[in-house]
Design brief:
Blueprint lengths: L1 H32 L2 E8 L2 E8 L5 H15 L7 H6 L8 H16 L9 H13 L5 H8 L7 E4 L2 E4 L12 H15 L5 E5 L2 E5 L9 E5 L12 E6 L4 E6 L4 E4 L2 E4 L14 E8 L2 H25 L4 E7 L5 E5 L10
Antiparallel strand pairs: 1-2, 2-5, 3-4, 5-6, 6-9, 7-8, 9-12, 10-11, 12-13, 13-14
Helix pairs in contact: 2-7, 4-8, 7-8
Length: 342
Amino acid sequence: MMDATRKKRLIWQLPFLVLLIVGTILIIRQQRNMPYKTNQGTIFGTFYTVTYQSDKDYHADIKAALLQVDSALSMFNEKSVISRINQSYGGPVNQMFLDVYEKAVQISKETDGAFDITVAPLVNAWGFGFKSGAMPTRQQVDSIRQFVGWQKVSLKGHTIQKSDRRTMLDCSAIAKGYGVDVVAQVLKQQGITNYMVEIGGEIITHGISPRRLPWRVGVIKPTDDSLSAHNEYQTILNVTDKAMATSGNYRNFYYKGGKRYAHTIDPHTGYPVQHNILSATVLAGDCATADAYATSFMVMGLEGAQRILERHPELMAYLIYTDRNNEYAVWFSPSLKDKIEP
């Protein structure tokens, strides 16, 4: 009697199982046949490329999202939230600015101020100084340092307050990464699972590439090729389901008196960093975090970066530096080993 009951159940369940199997096969086949689209454009003074698998074009949504980020964080947009703050106008900030500001403060604390969104006046002083042939004096550097420092800015409710009106905010070391995250969120909301978003070299990926393989991204070998005419890869990384950002001094530097000065400024000293790190590539769960830590590691140097990575196992880094013989050397997080292509 029991066997007969079980047989009846199996007979009734069999059509549903067949439908489930057929449906799964059709979904997989549809996904395999679904094309990948590529949208490109300019934002934040650089180029973006978004590749995703979909039968619909979402470029309009992508551009709209990027313009929202621009209206919050662009110093070149006179009406942006950050421009209003820099001009010392009051008023509440929007959620995008708040997201970036809170992450910037968190990373500034974690890096003991190596990451600092108020350092732009020092960067500008050194940049203009080298271009004009007149390096800033110690007195000029000390004068600027009086109003540089992430702790000179605070959040009261939804309003930014500055202890010194001369303090300027510049989110360029985190905004591209944040923009990448925002575009990725747009794609996720549309149910897209296979994509790569890249803005000015900052990247996030998910799923598989158009070749039906994991996403692979090259880390450029440091050279003095300022025009980027010859990009040679140091290594290839598997970055599927990860965000990746790279910061480097090898193309942004100045020579003065036979000495090479890095473009990266140490907020603590007000002077260009003198560390031996040439390029810092960071992998993280989101691109804003990867972007900010990549900049921080350029300021902190190899040992400082290693200390941060010990405290944050969720981060991975690939660091290129010059050794005692002035030769290229590489250090990477042990957890990154499986992601390095042979």
